[in-house]
């Protein structure tokens, strides 16, 4: 099975070398946990290997993604010029911009992605949807269906998908998970205050057909580098309670 490196230093070896080609992987977490940084890195790593990439951005403009990529050390402008990258702007629709969508509508998203795929030409394509949850903001009950539609429509299109999601604990509990149900893999990003410092944590919650590591890891976002896996963490009961709310409850206690 072919695996695609994520480009995150320290992560690929935890998942037997990378994300299996053709998978749909959900990168989920609260605001500021590194979902966009991960998405940019996954894209840049594909581009560096000569792969085609499509990046759908819903919460930031195309400009903002290009700027953030540059801060992390990746030249997206060059890739756009060369025709190996398409950034679909779902935040700022502009007349005449073919790579933007007007409505946060899943069918419109899918058809725009297919158009981009045709433009990029033959071969495998990495697709990032950052974020997928923007498509069900006012209708969380549709989360699972929309995620399924995306995966199913693109199943024969030779794509590997990373979709980010961010939602309130209440909606996750009330309506069940969305993208997680249909995802072949789940990377969960968390925040925690440990000894008075904001730490970022990562757990590989699911990766089908992979003997993945099951520890909680501390990660960092580094300028010029992006996400880096630092070391496994032992979370004390106290620190656990200070973790921001989690959809996981067990006997009244928060669990990672
Ligand atoms: N160039 C950088 N150098 C160092 N740290 C950075 C850099 N860029 C971002 N960060 C850190 O990463 C965090 C933002 O990560 P990111 O934008 O990926 O979060 P996110 O999970 O996508 O959040 P949201 O759900 O709000 O979109 C910032 O708050 C900052 O702490
Ligand atoms: Mg983001």
Give a nutshell description of this structure:
Pfam families: ATPase. By secondary structure, the protein is α/β, with parallel strands linked by helices. It is 29% helix and 29% strand.
Tell me what you see in this structure:
The structure is a single chain. By secondary structure, the chain is an alpha/beta fold. The chain has one domain: Rossmann fold (3-Layer(aba) Sandwich), CATH 3.40.50. The protein is built from eight helices and 13 strands. It has helices spanning 35-48, 62-72, 76-82, 106-120, 143-153, 169-175, 179-182, 237-242; strands at 3-4, 19-20, 24-29, 52-57, 85-89, 125-130, 159-165, 185-194, 197-207, 216-222, 226-232, 249-250, 253-254. Strands 5-4-6-7-3-8-9-10-11 form a nine-stranded mixed sheet, with helices on both faces. A two-stranded antiparallel ribbon has the order 1-2. A two-stranded antiparallel ribbon has the order 12-13. Helix 1 packs across helix 2 (62-72). The chain starts with a strand and ends with a strand. Residues 247-256 have low confidence and may be disordered. The structure holds adenosine-5'-triphosphate and magnesium ion (MG). Magnesium ion binds at residues 35-36, 59, 130. Pfam families: ATPase. GO terms for molecular function: ATP binding. InterPro entries: KaiC-like_dom (IPR014774), KaiC-rel (IPR022443), KaiC_dom (IPR010624), P-loop_NTPase (IPR027417).
């Amino acid at each position: 099975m072919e695996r695609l490196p994520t480009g995150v230093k320290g992560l690929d070896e935890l998942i037997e070398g990378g994300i299996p080609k053709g998978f749909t992987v959900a990168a989920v977490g609260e605001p500021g946990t590194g979902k966009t940084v991960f998405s940019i890195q996954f894209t840049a790593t594909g581009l560096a290997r000569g792969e085609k990439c499509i990046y759908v951005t819903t919460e930031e403009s195309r400009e903002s993604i290009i700027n953030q990529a540059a801060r992390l050390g990746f030249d997206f402008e060059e890739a756009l010029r060369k025709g190996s990258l398409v950034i679909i702007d779902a935040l700022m629709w502009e007349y005449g911009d073919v790579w933007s969508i007007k409505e946060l509508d899943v069918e419109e998203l899918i058809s725009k992605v297919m158009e981009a795929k045709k433009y990029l030409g033959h071969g495998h394509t990495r697709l990032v949807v950052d974020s997928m949850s923007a498509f069900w903001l006012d209708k969380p009950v549709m989360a699972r269906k929309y995620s399924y539609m995306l995966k199913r429509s693109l199943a024969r299109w030779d794509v590997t998908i990373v979709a980010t999601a961010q939602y309130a604990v209440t909606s996750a509990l009330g309506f069940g998970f969305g993208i997680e149900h249909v995802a072949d893999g789940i990377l969960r990003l968390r925040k925690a205050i440990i000894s008075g410092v904001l730490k970022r944590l990562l757990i590989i919650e699911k990766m089908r057909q992979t003997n993945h590591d099951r520890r909680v890891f501390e990660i960092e976002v580094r300028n010029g580098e992006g996400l880096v896996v630092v070391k496994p963490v032992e979370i004390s009961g106290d620190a656990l309670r200070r973790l921001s709310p989690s959809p996981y409850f067990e006997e009244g206690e928060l669990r990672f």
